[in-house]
DNA sequence: TCGATGATTGAG
DNA sequence: TCAATCATCGAA
């Protein structure tokens, strides 16, 4: 499967967040001369903007930590959170914006599930990649991968095409204290008659 | 330097 | 409900 090209990320951050639902996150694991691929379908994302978004790391302007958010789109922006976890984002914005990124909050495991179990300390498949900290642990994504280009298949972390989701649910973002009004969270959903059912692989924020 | 905070998670 | 756990950043 081909990587999504850079122009995909040159769009309004919330549009990119929505369009990433159903796409495939790929993590290449290099062990000696062996190469293994972990794959997951993106089922939950959130958009974080610039000066219009007080919840965004970029809200106060550029700093050493958030500099990647101000750089080229289609790059991995990864940071350490709560002293315990890594959060994985992809930079995305329209050219007239100075910064923006999409947080990947959950994926549905597709390939390399046994390896993901090994990376996780807990052996509960229902929590394997459900939540931003859990998916980075399962796919062994850390700050070492920050800045990598997700538009090229040679990158340890990249994104390829996938399936169009039957439906997408948008809602308020999770775990933030500012900018809580914005509905910039997107979740893979199924249609059941006139109802929408959220993917069980997406987190709920408790 | 210092202290508060945080795009979370697992255990109790 | 709470503790783990620490990099980041603005204030002092």
Keywords:
single chain; about 210 residues; mainly beta; 9 strands; DNA-binding
Helix/strand layout:
Blueprint: H1 13-19, E1 24-31, E2 34-48, E3 76-81, E4 85-91, E5 101-111, H2 113-119, H3 132-138, E6 157-160, E7 167-171, E8 185-192, E9 195-198
Antiparallel strand pairs: 1-2, 1-6, 2-5, 2-8, 3-4, 4-5, 7-8, 8-9
This protein binds a DNA duplex (12 and 12 nucleotides) through residues 46, 48, 55-57, 60, 63-65, 79-85, 87, 89, 103, 105, 121-122, 127, 131-134, 137, 173-177, 206.
Task: Describe this protein's structure.
There is one protein chain. The chain has 206 residues and is mainly β. The protein contains three helices and nine strands. It has helices spanning 13-19, 113-119, 132-138, and strands at residues 24-31, 34-48, 76-81, 85-91, 101-111, 157-160, 167-171, 185-192, 195-198. Strands 1, 2, 3, 4, 5, 6, 7, 8 and 9 form a nine-stranded antiparallel sheet that branches. It starts with 12 loop residues before the first helix and ends in an 8-residue tail after the last strand. The protein binds a DNA duplex (12 and 12 nucleotides) through strand 3, strand 4 and helix 3.
